[in-house]
Specification:
By secondary structure, this protein is mainly beta. The chain has one helix spanning 2-31; strands at residues 37-39, 47-53, 58-63, 69-73, 78-82, 89-96, 101-107, 125-130, 136-141, 152-157, 163-167, 172-176, 182-187, 200-206, 210-215, 220-225, 233-237, 247-249, 254-258, 269-274, 281-288, 296-302, 305-310, 328-331.
Amino acid sequence: MKNIISKTVIVLISLLIFSCSEEDGQEFDAVQELLDVYPLQEISLYPEGIVYSEVTEKTYVGSYYKGKIITVDLLGNRSDFVTDESLIAVVGMTIDETNNRLLVCNSDAGISLRSDNSTIGQLAEIIAYDLITGAKLKTIDLSELYPGGHFLNDLILDDHGNVYVTDSFSPVIYKIDKNDNPSVLVSNANFEVPQGAFGLNGIVYHKDNFLIVGKSFGGILYKIPLSDPEDVQEITLNTSVNSLDGLLLTDNNLMLVSNNFTGAPFDEAVYEIETSNDWTSANVTSVFSALDGTYPTTLTEIKNELFVSFGYFTDLVDPNSVPNDNFKLQKVKFSN
């Protein structure tokens, strides 16, 4: 009888523990459900680059105007992460998971709080920060690799730890090898744009060992095989995307941000693009234009959901604008 009672007690305790664990799991999942909008309400933040880390479960957001980096967790809690005074405009960011680093493009287009005549159009730094602590680990200067103006815009890693960086003011893509040695990967006349226009912008790496790079002016995509970087191939699209900024490559498709700085008559949007011939050509299959902000810049995936940031950069060149705090990350929901 004693054994029967003991076994019964054990069973009841086990059921109770299992029940509590199941409820706790449901609560955790409910808490972790992503918001449709993550507010970034900070005066004059003007964000540009964003990237999510599975390691820290935080989104890193770089300020184009203030030259700082903040983090946003899955609940929407924000905190300063890097307040390095050497940062002028934080543009593209990517995560080096192997070395636990956040890699950042530090540039100066002349409309940031710390813009200076000595750095406008010349600053070209990749800065590495510890992904957990935010400590500065290394600065890699690319300004002497190619003559002319510079504005490092975006960067991406390949499967071997090499980093590729676009320059919007020079027709160049740089390479930084896994030992942090920089060089010019390719310079090409197709990357050139008229004086005052932005050239190369978003960049992604495809597992089949090629890059897809976007040129803002004209909204053109290029495929660059890493086995022969001089073989620059334009990707033919079935329709115009007008201009482009950030790119994001998912398992199957390319996501592209189109924004409007010129005042030309077209709507800002996020495009989903598919290919059936290994990115020789591609088709726009979905368009998301229900944007809750202006001047969308960059995309990131958070728990398999797509989010876009808004820079409101037209404010920065409008002498009549008032300080803005209406910044956010918005979930992108394609209708088809």
